[in-house]
Design brief:
about 280 residues, Uridine Diphospho-n-acetylenolpyruvylglucosamine Reductase, domain 2, five-stranded mixed β-sheet, alpha+beta, Uridine Diphospho-n-acetylenolpyruvylglucosamine Reductase, domain 3, 2 domains, five-stranded antiparallel β-sheet
Amino acid sequence: MSGYAAQGGANQTYEGGTMYDFDYAKAKSVTDAATRLKATEGAKLLAGGMTLLPTIKLRLAKPAALVDLGALGDLKGISVAGGVVTIKAMTRHADVLRSAEVAKAIPALVTLAGGIGDVQVRHRGTIGGSIANNDPAADYPAGCLGLGATIVTSKREKAADAFFTALFTTALEPDEIITEIRFPVPERAAYVKFKNPASRYAIVGAFVSKGPKGVRVAITGAGDNGVFRVTAMEQALAKSFDAKSIEGITVDPGNMLGDIHASSEYRAHLVGVMVKRAIVAAA
């Protein structure tokens, strides 16, 4: 972010040649962070900063305050028990990539984490920040939706199906904080993406799984309303988990994003291609 840290816990950044102030504070606990969010309208949480800081730099966001979660050790860590992989919200992508527990239980999540950004991004970005920002090209929303994960917050538990609501939008309330994500261990799963060669964001990413939540197919990077499931493919794969089962099943290009990287028609085509590749990888 352009700007510099000032004395007294305030930060300043440039806007159109002038500067504006915003408050900065390191949260001492989840409760403290929630209190600070509620006290200042327009306050934002700072996790890894891989989405928030660029949006501030580009003037797409202008928070009145930043509440840094970096010092909260109880929001970091990975555990596996009772057929569930639990990843705390401030766990970094590199930690998921290196986790032997995750690799044994859900190797598709290791693949997903290893394909995020570059080394620097993986060592700064967090799973909670990725999910909370719900970038339409982010990988973890597909992992959550594709596995039927449960998002645990400071207030409640929310199924992934009801958590991601629109582009850059979730069901989180203004003072609600993600604390952990619980992934049921599937029988099989895989994540495959057609990535932007520069940013490694998903132009189209497909997460396919078969497990306690049935067969699930989640797509990121393509939908004009963010991450989504392809129920027709799920129904076909429930009968026969084979790439041939989804032959002829397509998605509507009218519901796809179109930009300089890929047209809506091309993204619609890529959905089928990526899902087939994920099925083969999972099987």
